[in-house]
Write a structure and sequence with these properties.
The protein has seven helices and eleven strands. By secondary structure, it is an alpha/beta fold.
Length: 236
């Protein structure tokens, strides 16, 4: 007999062994949770920080009136809040989402997370790229006006060792290469990281700052923001 589920007792809906370890979809009351390799990644309880990630990137771009709609790369599909927010804004152009876990893509396309993302996935501007983010940033020749990255709990707390390369000098150089001149990098984190701010400056980014996202309890989430110099080269 199936055990009864309360808001305090999570129910495992799916568990997969993927190419990068185990991913689990759980439901806790009306909230869905994604667990990666035993590490809580995100849930559908709020979403304000994921939405602010996208909004902050657009505001930092501040495109002039009449400019072409800026293109956006979202690193990590997650529970879908960032994608849904981007698609809800008609001022974005191309919206690409990189997700390496086939299970997460399936949970959105045919599973319960479609309640968050179905409309955004049907948007003709949206493209889901099933690949590893670090590999895509390194190997692709595509360029975007904004990169919004949310694949870890922050630069200092990664889901797995492979992701550490994203925040290394080589990984940040790849982010810089994927941006058009004047483009914006936005990175979500569960806590501020002065060391990461300095790493962004060392990588050649300009206008580096950290924006807090108030939460119900505890230390605020943050979004690290940085721009590629308009001239295309390193900041001076």
């Amino acid at each position: 007999m199936k055990a009864s589920v309360t808001p305090e007792t999570p129910e495992t809906l799916d568990r997969r062994e993927g190419p990068f370890g185990e991913v689990v979809l759980r439901r806790r009351g009306a909230t869905y949770e994604i667990i990666a390799n035993g590490c809580f990644l995100m849930d559908t309880s709020d979403g304000r920080s994921e939405r602010l990630l996208v909004d902050a990137a657009y505001l930092a771009l501040d495109p002039p009136p009449g400019a072409p709609a800026p293109s956006l790369l979202i690193g990590g599909l997650g529970v879908g809040f960032s994608l849904a927010r981007a698609a809800a804004r008609k001022d974005w152009g191309r919206i690409a989402v990189v997700e390496r876990e086939p299970a997460i893509i399936e949970w959105h396309r045919t599973g319960p997370l479609g309640t968050v993302s179905a409309e955004a996935l049907a948007d003709p501007r949206t493209e889901v790229l099933h690949t590893d983010l670090v590999a895509y940033l390194t190997d692709s020749a595509d360029r975007y006006d904004a990169l919004c990255l949310d694949i870890d709990n922050g630069p200092d707390w990664t889901v797995d060792e492979d992701n550490r390369g994203l925040y290394s000098p080589a990984g940040l150089a790849a982010c810089l290469d994927r941006l058009h001149p004047g483009g914006v990098l936005a990175v979500w984190s569960a806590q501020p990281s002065p060391a990461f701010e300095q790493a962004l400056r060392d990588a050649g980014f300009a206008s580096v700052r950290t924006q807090e996202v108030p939460v119900a309890r505890g230390v605020p989430d943050v979004v690290h923001l940085a721009r590629k110099p308009a001239g295309g080269g390193p900041a001076r």
